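FAQ: What does a ligand-bound record look like?

Like this one, built around 4FV:
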Amino acid sequence: MVRAALQDGVLGRAVESGLIDLQVHDLRAFTTDRHKVVDDTPFGGGPGMVLKPEPLFRAVDTLRETRGEPDLVLLPSPQGRRFTQQVAGEYSRKAHLVFLCGRYEGVDERVSTALVTEEVSIGDYVLSGGELPALVIVDAVARLVPGVVGDAESVVRDSFTRGLLDHPHYTRPASFRGLDVPGVLLSGHHGEIERWRRQQALRRTFERRPDLLEDAALTDEERQWLARWKAGENNGAQAS
Ligand code: 4FV
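The answer part, i.e. the structure of the complex:
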């Protein structure tokens, strides 16, 4: 599953070029019993199974010897700290990350309390395993590693980098089924284009994710636009 995600694209090239060194380890390799058991029934009863502590602790012990002390041992879980672009930036400045991928109901709590640096959540929903969240985090973090994304410019302009949603993107044809590309983008007037994109990014954030505006770094001009839209909205509200 993890290897499949690394076959091609930005991540695949990053691993190929050695910018990212990603290893996948089979938990069963860290069991000592004949049946290579990694899970067991929950103490106190209840549905499902729980991942045992021993294989996970042995796995990280072995990694410490073979790969050096990790900077972070991360456990993707719904109980974790919310994963954001800011958190991706934080992780991208670390040299060595280990992800413990849960399955079943989750991992024995002693893994969280005595082995894991932090639990991290990609969202308030329940998945069947930690692999997909780990890959989501690896993808977001890898993009921030210098050289991974060809045009560093596009990383800087990524959504949320300024705490705002992204502006609309258009490409050829300039007119499609009667749908025309905004004229400013065809004007060649870079100042105007940049202003339009900032305005669009702010307008979308105002409409779709006003919660992001609290921490967004805004210019005076952007604050004026916001005030005008809010006023417009209130007048609209009063009008109705
Ligand atoms: C999850 C999330 C998540 C819970 C039990 C794996 C599953 C299963 N991880 N953000 N949402 N994990 O649903 O990070 O073991």
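Follow-up question: can I read anything off the structure? Yes, for example: The chain is about 40% helix and 10% strand.
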